[in-house]
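Figure caption, in words: inputs first, then the predicted bound structure.
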Amino acid sequence: MSRDLVFHIQRFSIHDGPGIRTTVFLKGCAMECFWCHNPEGRHPYQELQYFATRCIACGECVRVCPTHAHVLTDGVHTFLRDLCTTHGACVDVCCSGALEMNGRIMSVDEVMFEVLQDKPFYENSGGGVTLSGGEPGLNVRFSREILQRCKDAGVATAVETCGYCSKEALNSLLPVTDLFMMDLKLITPERHDAATGNTNERILDNARMLASTGKPLIFRTPVVPTVNDAVEEFSGIVAFIRELIALRSVAGNTAPITYELLAFHKLGSDKYVSLGMDYRASHLEPPTKEQMHSLLTIARTAGVDARIR
Ligand code: SF4
Ligand code: SF4
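Bound structure (iron/sulfur cluster present):
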């Protein structure tokens, strides 16, 4: 049985697929989207989060840390991240919640114990379990085992993927996944590279592969001002989705392909600070309702079943 890093298990999730769901967030992603809403899912290793605003300068962490990663000078606390070996002793003694260990190694059994607690809610709401991240396609053996166990337990499954993983990985998840939700962030390779650290050929290829299967598919675009909200760029994404819808219907495949627009937000900005990461989207403002609706109109006018989530 495999074990891997999970950074969050969200119960009663209603935004990660149909019905009431439990979303399991796996740690590790090969993309570096500069606006990422879940920076704590990026690195494939445990890391300490330090929320300075919660610190009461009690000094307990200084007392227990064997590598002196915590320093208290004249009542001011400093966290020396490079000295931290993430074994977590400080988290256990910090009573203010200023310290949290991001990422825990869990076995498939441990994940299943948590997700099966809400099985009655899944059954009554058409819900189930969603794997998200990070990128589930990177932790593919762990992902497949969890999804298989869910299927064995009669629980519907969904996978949220950024598409930046091997085609083989996504292929291996097909038999145990009822619904795929895949990001399409940009269509222009150079713009995609500049915004995410990777070009999009592999992602578009994986999108074509998923579209050729009989699986329900929801494409999602996080609408980020100055990144992908220009009519030309956005229309390019919509045209690509139209192409896949046409391919699917030519193949006589009736499984739905739908589209969701998600408005960029800055709610996760303090997570970057707590992780010692640079937040490069602080200068951006969320798109307005009008901007979102004008993009929605572009998608719907093109014949795509789209909505704002
Ligand atoms: S234990 Fe927590 S509250 Fe106390 S000094 Fe350390 S970080 Fe601050
Ligand atoms: S996790 Fe361990 S090494 Fe890291 S700061 Fe806390 S006590 Fe020190």
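Residues 48, 64-65, 67, 69-70, 84-90 surround iron/sulfur cluster (ligand 2) (CB under 6 Å).
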